[in-house]
Amino acid sequence: MFAEFITILDLVGVAVFAATGGLVASRKEMDLIGFGMMATFTGIGGGTLRDIILDRPVFWINDQRYLLVCLAIAVLLFFFASRVQKRYVMLIWADAAGLAAFAVMGAEIARESGVSPLVAIILGMATATFGGLARDLVAGEIPLLLKQEVYATAALLSAATYIAAITYLDTPRLNAACLAIAIGFGLRAGAITFGWSLPRYRQRAGRIYK
């Protein structure tokens, strides 16, 4: 049952992130090929990085449903994105949902590959954030990862909650996944709504040595 849940979560996460890529393509007024590229970069980018680091078969090569989902989302948005008002708002909220889901899914896949809990958490965060980073860089926008609002921290919290719950609290994996997704999404939602951010480094004058 949990394996099926992870597969569904993976496909849904890919679809959500692909949609964010398609929405960026619509804002940039790209052609259909551009929509496909943006949806694909965003949908499978994080998982591709994770699999390469873990030295495991890249997931979308063996299971081409992921590519088909990305391309289907790209085509749909090419024809219908113009009917959606306030697309940037949709992009932000869709990205928040995908962020929390991908962090948990990436952490679970990394854990199943035999890495330590810390590495699983880091790879969960990377799975959740790399696709969006690639999307924004290709589109010539400031990546959400580099903005002041809490972003990567929400992915980190999702992955850490999941790994801690199943490793140290012996929580059933399905319950842990649902809890972790809710917590990560809640943090990101608070950042979107209230502008939450972490303290930032401020430049100071260097010490003068004589």
From TrEMBL:
Keywords, A to Z, come to: Cell membrane, Membrane, Transmembrane, Transmembrane helix
One Gene Ontology term, aspect cellular component: plasma membrane
Q: Which residues cross the membrane?
A: 6-25, 32-53, 65-81, 88-106, 118-138, 150-168, 174-198
The Glycine transporter domain is annotated at 8-81, 93-164
Family, similarity comment: Belongs to the UPF0126 family.
Protein name per UniProt: Trimeric intracellular cation channel family protein
UniProt membrane topology term: Multi-pass membrane protein
Q: Does the keyword Ribonucleoprotein apply?
A: no
Tell me where it resides. Cell membrane
InterPro entries for the chain: Gly_transporter
